[in-house]
Design goal:
The protein is mainly α. The protein has 3 helices and no strands. Keywords: Membrane, Transmembrane, Transmembrane helix.
Length: about 100
């Protein structure tokens, strides 16, 4: 898996949360640049988490099945859920590194 795609899957939802917190912390007097930056960050995080993430996960699962003798179970797709991504990705990486 491409390292940037993996980081996007892990940190895309985090970018969404941070941008919402930043927007909420600035209150009603949000500068115009901060509002535009918050919108851009939310759009980027949403695109990574919703569009790129599942496609990258599926392509990684297919390429892993071709290269090794281990095929991840369909539960592997739960890595796209924000709060489950950290423990599932840790288990997946350990299993992937030990099977390759």
């Amino acid at each position: 898996m491409n390292a940037l795609v993996f980081l996007g899957i892990l940190f895309g939802p985090l970018v969404l949360v941070v941008s919402y917190l930043f927007t909420a912390a600035t209150g009603p007097s949000v500068p115009t640049w901060a509002d535009a930056a918050g919108v851009a960050i939310r759009f980027y995080g949403t695109a990574l988490a919703v569009i790129v993430g599942p496609v990258a996960l599926h392509l990684d699962r297919i390429s892993l099945a071709k290269r090794s003798n281990w095929i991840p179970s369909p539960l592997y797709y739960l890595i796209a859920i924000p709060f489950l991504s950290i423990p599932i990705s840790f288990i997946y990486l350990v299993r992937r590194l030990t099977s390759a």
